[in-house]
Amino acid sequence: MRRDQYEAQADSTGKSQAQRFIEAVQRSNERAAYYTQKLSPSAFGSQEFQSPVKAGNGEYLMTLTLGSPPQTFDVIVDTGSDLNWVQCLPCRVCYQQPGPKFDPSKSSSFQKTSCADNLCNALPVKACAANVCQYQYTYGDQSNTNGDLAFETISFNSGGGDQHVPNFAFGCGTQNLGTFAGAAGLVGLGRGPLSLNSQLSSTFANKFSYCLVSLNSAAASPLTFGSVASAANIQYTPIVENPKHPTYYYVQLNSIEVGGQPLNLAPSVFSIDQATGRGGTIIDSGTTITMLTMPAYNAVLKAYQSFVKYPMVDGSAYGLDMCFNIAGVANPSVPDMVFKFQGADYELLAQNLFVLVDASATTLCFAMGGSQGFSIIGNIQQQNHLVIYDLEAKKIGFAIADC
C-alpha cells in the first residue's frame, strides 16, 4: 500500500475524499441496519453490451440511455435492489444532479404503466391513480424515490452497433430524497423481475460482470452484459437461494482466514435461518464497506490486532473501529484475508482491507464493520476483482484483476 494512493482533493461539492469516505461508511452502516430490519421476520438474439463504470462518492456509476430520441444519464449501480429509475420532469421534490433530468415530454416512446401490469405488481410498495402505477422505493440508508412506473426504450451499443429495446420498465421519479448526489438515479441489478438484468435476460444471455476500480481512481472499467470476461484463475461459488428475500445475491461463506490462519468460527455464524430468512452473506455493489456478522467481525478485529504492530488510534470520527498510526512508515504492511466461500477462495489484499482516511496519510483504518445477524460483501472489498454473475447457471465467479 503506497501513501500516494490517497488523494485529499475536494469534489464539486467542496468535500474532501476523507469527508466523502466518512459519509460512505455511514451509509454502509445505515444500509446494514435497514437490511437487518428487512431480513428479520415480519425479440433480440444474445448480445453483448458494455458500459463504463466510474467511481462515485462511495458508489459506482454507469451510463443509462432512455427515450426516443435518447437521453443519457449517469446512475448508481446497485446489485442489492431491483428498480431502475431516474429523476423526471416535472419534479415535485428533486435533489440537484449533474446534467438535465429526464423529460418524458421529449420522448415519443414514453408510456406510463397500468396498475394491472405484472411489473407493477412486482413493486414492494405501490399505489394506483387514474390507472397509472405509482411506486415508492426505499433504500438501506433511508434514501427514497417516488413517482410513476413507466415503459421506455432503452438503448445500448453492442458489437453489432446500436440496439434499442422497447418497453423497458423504469421509475420516473418526481419526488426523490437522500444520498444520490452525483447520480441521476439508479440501476437495479438484483434478482427480481424489475431489475435491468432480469428485464433484458434474453437479450444478454442472463449474464453480467464488472471489475471495479479503486474509489480513488479516475479510470473507468466496463460493466459487461452478455458474454462475460474470462480469466484462468476464476473460481465460482453457487448462488444460495433465500426464498424469504429473493432479490439478493446470497453466497455461502464457510470461514475466514487472516494471514493464512483460519479463524475459530462456528459454521452456523454464516448460515441462513430457513424459517425466518435471517443470516447468510450477500454480495452488494451498493454498500461501500463489508459488514460482517458480529461474531465473525470481532474475531477478525482480534486477529488483526495481534498481527499489526502499529500504534492503535481512535477511529470513531471515521465511523470505523480499528485504526493505526503509521506516521513515518513508508510502506505499511498488513496481512491478507481470505473469504472461504463454497467452492471458491476470495482473496482480499491490503487495498481491499485498509484505507488511509486523513489528509496527512498517517491514519490507516480497517474498512469493515459489524452487523447484526448477517454479512454484506461491499464494494471496497470487490475492487480490483473481476466479479461474474452467471444467472443462468446460478453461480458467481471471482478473480483478482487489474481493473
Please render the helix and strand layout as text.
Elements lengths: L16 H22 L10 E7 L4 E7 L4 E8 L6 E3 L23 E2 L5 H4 L4 E4 L2 E7 L5 E15 L2 E17 L7 E4 L7 H4 L7 E5 L8 E6 L9 E4 L10 E3 L1 E6 L2 E2 L18 E3 L6 E4 H14 L4 E2 L9 E3 L11 E5 L2 E5 L1 H4 E3 L6 E4 L1 E4 L3 E3 L7 E6 L4 E6 L3
Parallel strand pairs: 3-10, 4-9, 17-26, 18-25
Antiparallel strand pairs: 1-2, 1-12, 2-3, 2-8, 4-10, 5-8, 6-7, 7-8, 8-9, 11-12, 11-27, 13-28, 14-17, 15-16, 15-21, 19-20, 20-24, 21-22, 23-24, 27-28
Q: Give Rg in angstroms.
A: 21 Å
> Total number of β-strand segments?
28
Q: Give the rounded overall mean pLDDT.
A: 87
Q: How many domain modules? A: 2
| Uncertain segments | 1-12, 39-46
Q: Please identify the structural class as seen in this structure.
A: mainly beta
Tell me the name of the CATH homologous superfamily of the largest domain: Acid Proteases
Which percent range fits the helix content? 10-25%
What form results from the Cα inertia axes? globular
The CATH architecture assignment of the largest domain turns out to be Beta Barrel
CATH secondary-structure class of the largest domain = Mainly Beta
Query: Between the first and last Cα atoms, what is the distance in angstroms?
Result: 16 Å
**Portion in strands:** 35-45%
Number of helices: 5
Biggest sheet, in brief?
A: 6 strands, mixed, barrel
Strand ordering within the main sheet? 2-3-10-4-9-8
Might you state the CATH topology name of the largest domain?
Cathepsin D, subunit A, domain 1
Protein name: Peptidase A1 domain-containing protein
InterPro entries: Aspartic_peptidase_A1, Aspartic_peptidase_AS, Pepsin-like_plant, PEPTIDASE_A1, Peptidase_aspartic_dom_sf, Plant_Aspart_Prot_A1, TAXi_C, TAXi_N
Family: Belongs to the peptidase A1 family.
GO molecular function: aspartic-type endopeptidase activity
